[in-house]
Amino acid sequence: MPDTAIRLHVADDLATGRHIALDGGPAHYLATVMRRRVGDAALLFNGRDGEWRARIEAMARGSCALVVEARTRPQADGPDVWLVFAPVKRGRIDDLVGRATELGVAALWPVRTERTNVARVNAARLRANAIEAAEQSERLTVPMVHDYLALPALLERWPRERRMLWCDESGTAPSIADALARASQPLRAPWAVLVGPEGGFARSELDALRKLPFVTAVSLGPRALRAETAALAALACWQALIGDWQEAHRHGS
Amino acid sequence: MPDTAIRLHVADDLATGRHIALDGGPAHYLATVMRRRVGDAALLFNGRDGEWRARIEAMARGSCALVVEARTRPQADGPDVWLVFAPVKRGRIDDLVGRATELGVAALWPVRTERTNVARVNAARLRANAIEAAEQSERLTVPMVHDYLALPALLERWPRERRMLWCDESGTAPSIADALARASQPLRAPWAVLVGPEGGFARSELDALRKLPFVTAVSLGPRALRAETAALAALACWQALIGDWQEAHRHGS
Predict the structure, then answer these.
(1) Which of A222, B46, B139, B157 has its CA 20 to 30 A from that of B199?
(2) Residue B149 has what DSSP assignment?
(3) C-alpha distances in angstroms, B172 versus A139, A188, A232, B169?
């Protein structure tokens, strides 16, 4: 049996003895890319039932059947941090979604701002990138993808109890480490990271953000960061300071 | 005059009244990409003399002359943190170099490990990516690019007073926030971040790293991170906790 464990996200319920049918991309990946054969094992997760070892019982051109054997990890949810971001160009947005998934985001929420030049966001593509990164990063969940909304609509729908860590480029906000050290939120409180578009937020958007009680503006230092860099840096600091990077063990959600 | 400031790195010394000749890529960028004309301004820096405003005094096909007018920012060096990394595929390495430059690395040091499948590293290409990111991120310096070395040779040459923050995937290391909080280094002490190759370090490499007095092993949480994600996350945490993100003002080096 090959020694690199393959992890696949499936929609099916998972329990010992269940039969899982794969076709399309996952079947091609198992058979052609990873050259797995009947009798080989793979790990499956669905975001609800934990991680399970399954064994390939049949393969045909373009499809594959597995039988679920035993649970390898119980389900666990990760920290509750979302990423709200103005979409960047294709390629760069794929990469951002993948890296943010590795960094443990629970949800991805693309937002249209005054200076966002992207008319539509391909949610299915975001979700596919998130699934791939979840499979490779050993997550037990896949980040939820919210609908692309304009900033005012998003702020109107925002759940008030969820803090929004806004990467403010004005240079006047406190440092992210200071702001998070002062945050007296209970552990596992809901948070989100907000990053603006390449051209920055418009004046009216800045004014609106500064007035909102759930927004915490933070600075990410003296250099100008690309939107993606700011998003990943803020998520990393959040995880390190108040997320699940404080816990000793590997294998989280 | 267009309102987006253009910043260009040049090799020349900079002082009021000096004439700077550009050709090749920089001249094309100014004239064709950014559509600047005679009389327009640009900001120049060379890593030694601070940042200067210059004005275009002549343009021809493929070349451009500027005259330096006044200094806009004095020279300042950034925090002294290096990034030591096993090279990843082209495209991904370009991106890593750009983002690490935004995050303020002083030097980039590609390292060959037992599981690194890259025979040669194009140092000129790394440097070009670092320059572009330095221009766009408002840095006053460009990260130095060290020669590609095998890990044992690199460790042998390592300056003993420089701490190495090793992103250890074993799951047994303390969290990065705890490790940096305990680091009793003086402010602005020299540091480096070390990330391994995609397949991880070999057993003998792990054993060698664990014995070195200048190495601090840290954990980046429960999920498996790509090498690039780990590098950027560790740099962001370092800057936030003991680097220059604690300082209030924008416009560092």
Answers:
(1) B157
(2) E
(3) 19, 23, 24, 8
B253 contacts B139 by C-beta, under 8 angstroms: yes
The region, left, alpha or beta by phi > 0 then psi within -120 to 50, assigned to residue A122 is beta
Domains of chain B and any CATH numbers: 7-73 (2.40.240.20), 81-246 (3.40.1280.10)
DSSP β-ladder status, B63-73 and B19-23: antiparallel
Angstrom distance (rounded) from CA A21 to CA B88: 34
Q: Which of A178, A177, A173 is nearest to A196 (CA)?
A: A173
Residues in a beta bridge with B110: B85
Report how far apart the first and last C-alpha atoms of chain B are (Å, whole number).
26
User: Could A247 and B103 be called an inter-chain contact, meaning their C-beta atoms sit closer than 8 Å?
Assistant: no
Query: What ipTM goes with this model?
Result: 0.93
Instruction: Give the model confidence (pLDDT) of A230-239 as tens digits.
Output: 999 999 999 9
- Between CA B244 and CA B246, with CA B245 as vertex, the angle to 5 degrees is 90
Phi/psi for A4 (5° steps) reads -90, 120
Query: Are A237 and B232 in contact (CB < 8 Å)?
Result: no
Cα nearest neighbour of B104 on chain A:
A223
First to last CA, chain A: 26
CA distance A113 to A59: 48
pTM equals: 0.94
Residues of B within 8 A of A102 (CB-CB) are: 223-226, 229
Q: Distances in Å between the alpha carbon of B78 and those of A36, A218, A222, B5?
A: 50, 20, 9, 22
User: Is A163 in the B-facing interface, judged by CB distances under 8 Å?
Assistant: no
- pLDDT tens for A76-131 read 988 999 999 999 887 899 999 999 999 999 999 999 999 998 889 999 999 999 99
